[in-house]
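Students often ask what a holo structure prediction actually looks like on paper. The answer is less mysterious than it sounds. You provide the chain, you provide the ligand, and the output is a string of C-alpha cells encoding the 3D arrangement of the protein together with adenosine-5'-diphosphate.
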Amino acid sequence: MGATLGAGVLGIAITDSSEATAVWWPAGGVALLTLLLLPRRWWPALIAALTAAYVLANVLCGRPFDAAVLLGLSDIAETVLVATAIDRGIGRQMRTVADLGRLLIISLGGAFIAALGVAATSDALLGGDFGSTLLATTSSHWTSMVVAAPLALIPRQRISAPVPLVALQLVLLLTVTALSFGPDQDLTLAWAPIPFLIWAGLSFGYRVVAVELVVMSVLVTAMTLADWGPFAHHGGGTSQVVQLYLISLALSSLPLSLVVHGQTEATRFARIEKQRTEAVIDSSSTPILVTDSAGTVVSVNPATTHLTGFTAEDFRGRPFWELLLPEHRWPAVRRQLAERGALPEHGESLILTASGGERIVTFSNGVLHDPVDDTLHYVLTANDVTSERATSHLLQHLLRSATTVAIVGTDRGGAITLVNAGAEAMLRIDGDEAIRRPFVEFLDPDEIADRAAASGSVPGFASLVEAVDADGAPQTRDWTWVPPDGMPIQVSMTTSLIADAAGRPIGYLFVARDVTENRRNQEILKRALERESTAVDHLRALDSAKDDFVSTVSHELRTPLTSIVGSTELLTDGLAGQLTPQQRQMILVIDRNAERLLALANDLLLLAAQGSGTVAAQLVPLDLRSVVVSSHATVMPLLAQRRLDLRQQMPHEPVTVKGDAHYLERAVTNLLTNAIKFTPDGGSIEIRVGTTEDGTGCTLAVADTGIGIPADELENVFIRFFRSSNVQPDAIQGTGLGLAIVRSIVESHHGGIDVQSEPGTGSTFTITLPTA
Ligand code: ADP
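The corresponding C-alpha cells follow.
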C-alpha cells in the first residue's frame, strides 16, 4: 500500500504541470504486482487498501476530493480487472510466448478502461481534454503494467547463469543505456541497449530479463525526464514515445527468454524421458535389441546379453543375424530387410548362443519410422521359451505314449478339454470328437444316479467331483464307463483338481485304468474261497468224527487187551500150572504183542483227547531236570540189551518251567525211546537241558548219533503215522505216533519243537518251553 501510494505520488509529481492527469503511472504496476504476488483470499482487503492509496495519492497531490475518488476508482477497476484476467488466463507463471501475448492484450484492455474513467473525470472536473488524456493514460498505464507484471509471473524453472557473466551483462547494459540516454545525447542511439537485453534473454533467462526491464524503465524514464537522451525533445509526446520504447524492449527480450526457457525445458524433458526409457529397457527381463534399417545393432539390453551370452560389444555395429542366426538363414533375413518393413511382426525362431548352444524364442518386431529423415529402426523383443517347449513336448509325448492308462481333462463345468490315446482306445472314440462333449455322457447314468442319491447330491458331473471339491485331495474310486458303441467297462478312476499358477481351480483330471478283468477275477476268486472254506468245515467235521471213532475204538480195545496181558502174566507166573519152554515162548509172544497193541491204543487215545482238547495239561512250576531224571529211569530197561552211552548235561541250579510232569515225562520218554531205537549199538545219546540265548525260554535237547532222517522228510516227522523211508518197518518197530504226541504235548505247554538231522550222522530234537 505504501509503495503504491509512493508510486502514485511520484507519478503525479513528475508529470508536467500542463497535463491534467499523470502521464506516468508506476502505481498501476506496483498495485498489480501486489495482487499477483499475494494469495487470492487477501484480495478483498488489498483492494480496499489499494483504492485508499490511489485516492490518497491524488488528494495529496492537490486534486479535489471528488476527482481523486473518481480517478482512484478508475485505477482500482483496472488493477482488479487485469489481475483477475491474468490469474484466469495465464496463471501464476508465464510459460510461453502466447502467455506474453495474453498479458499485452489484457493489460491494454485494462489500461483502456482505466483511461476512459480518467479521461471522463479529467474532462468533467479537471478541465483536461478527453482525447489526449485517453491516449496518454492508456499508454502510461499499459507500459506500467507490461513492465511490472512479468516480475510477478516468473516461471519456477530457472536457467542457471554464471553470476559474473550476468553482472558483466548488467554493467554493459547500464553503461550503454547511460551513454545512449546521457546528457546532451541527441544521436538516435536508443536501439543500442537492445542487443544487451537480447543477450540476457538468450543466455540468462526470463528472471534476469524481467528484473532488467524494470531497471531499464526506471533509468530511461528518469533520464528522459531530466531532458537527456534521444527522446527528450519531443514536446508533449515525449512520455508516449518513452513508453512505446519500453514496451518494444519488453517485446524483444521477453519472448526470446520464454522460447529459450521452453527449449531448455523440452531438452530437459527429452533427456529425462530418454533416461527413463533406457532404465526401463535395461531393467527389463525381456531381451530387447534395437537395430537400424540395415539390421545393424544399435543397442542391446542386459537381458539380451544374459540370454545369448554375447556381450554388448559383440553386438554393436554388426548385423544381428550374424551372431544370432545360423548362416543359411542370413540371405532370407537380408532380403526381408531390403524390402522395407518385410521383417515378420512376430514369430518363433531358433537362435544361437555364444557357447554354441541353441534357444527357442518367440519374438516381436516393432518398426520405428522417423519421418524427418525417413529412416527405420527395428525394436526386436524376444521371449525365451526353450524350457516351455521342451516341457510341452514331453507332456505331449507322455499323453501319446500312455496307451494303457486313460487320461481325460475337463473344465470346471465338465466339458472335455483333453483326451489321450488310452482314453480314445478305452472309449472307442476319436479325440477331436470327444472334445467339448460333457464327460458324464461316457459314464453309466444309473451308477451316477445311485451315488448321487447315496451322498444326497444332484446327479450329474457334480457327483463325480464333489469329494475332490470338498477336500482338494485326489480321490480314487471304481466307475463304469460306457463307450458310445460298446460294452460298459469297469475302471478304477482317480479324480483330481487342476489349479492355475495362482491356485484357482480351473478344471479336473481323470486318470483311469480298465479293471474289468481284475474285478471278474476277484469275483471268481472270492467264490472259490467260499467253496474252499465250506470244504474245510466239512473236513473238520469229518476229522472230529474220526477222532471220536478212534478214541471209542481204542477205549473199547483197552479193556480186552488189559485182560489178555493180565492173563499172560498169570500164565508165565505159573499160576495155571508149570509151562513147557515152548508154551512159555508162545505166551511171551502173545504178551509182547498185546503190550504193543495196548501202547498203540493208549497213544491213539491220548492224541484223540489232545486233538479234541478234552484233556488239558495241569501247568504248575516244575524243575525240568527232574523230568529228565524220571524219563531216563523209564527207558533204562530198553538199554539193558544195548551197547549205548546215554549221558545227561544239566545245569546245577533248577530250570523251572510251568508244566504237567506226567505229560512232559511222556514227551521226553518218547524222544529217548526214538533215540535208542534209531541209534545202532556203539553210538551215544545225550540229553541237554539249558536256556535259550535271549533267556526267555528253557531248552531240552535229545541228541543221538543214529541213522538220521533224510532232509526232504524232516518236516513230516511230526505228522501222525509218518515213518521215514530209511526205517525198515520190520527191523525197527513203531507206529509213527510218538513224535505227533510229543508235538501235541509241547504245544499244549505253549512251547515248540525243532529237529536237525543228517542221515548216517545223527539227529537232535530240541524242545523249547517258556521259562516260568
Ligand atoms: P515211530 O518211532 O513209532 O516210528 P515216531 O513218531 O516216534 O514214530 O517217529 C516217526 C519217524 O521219525 C520214525 O519212524 C523215524 O523214521 C523218524 N525218527 C524219529 N526219531 C528219530 C531218531 N532219533 N533218529 C532217526 N529217525 C528218527
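The pocket of adenosine-5'-diphosphate is lined by residues 674-675, 678, 704, 706-709, 717, 722-724, 727, 734-740, 763 (CB under 6 Å).
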